Amino acid sequence: MKTKATYSYPLSVADFGLVVNIIADGYFSEDGEYDPTTGMLNTMYAFYKFCYKRDDEEVDTAEKMAEIAEKDGDFILDYNQALDCDVQCFNFANAYREAMELVRYRQESAVLLVNKLKSALDGAAQKLNQFASENLGTLANEIKESGISAEDIGTILQSMA
To answer: Are residues 141 and 93 both part of a single domain?
Structure first.
């Protein structure tokens, strides 16, 4: 038997900011790619955690949120009603609107390009580090096998200086 949900309206100022960020961030992957399905699940998660509080169910994964979204008609009805608001206050509807503004900004701006570029550079740097460490190990083994000692290398470097 499910317990009745309790509602938290309006949100505190701190919770309002958290909800805006959870929703907006949830629409983008770690690589900066727009992901509307995950974004919607994160939006539902934010509503569930901050507004639609239940004692009988803990939601801590996207899979659990998807299950609730697919099976709990009362939750979906309340979620959709919570998105409708014409007054300016710290509630879920306004947090959602603010988050969608951030999502649009990120999609249309250089922020998305910068995030993609950063992701590509991070990947390239990781590959370069891996390549360098693999090749330095091989080089060290070849030097060892050739009979050149660390003292010999030190002497060569001193003479070059």
So the answer is: no
Buried-state track 67-81, b at ≥16 Cβ within 10 A, e below 16: ebbeebeebeebbee
C-alpha span between 35 and 3 (Å, rounded)? 32
Residue 5, pLDDT score:
52
Q: Do 72 and 120 reside in the same domain of the chain?
A: no
Beta bridge partners of 28: 34
Same domain, 89 and 156: no
Pick from 133, 105, 87: which is nearest to 20 by CA? 105
Give the domain range for residue 52. Answer: 6-108
CA distance 98 to 75: 22
pLDDT, one tens digit per residue, over 66-114 is: 998 899 898 899 999 999 888 889 999 999 999 999 999 988 875 667 7
DSSP three-state, residue 161? coil
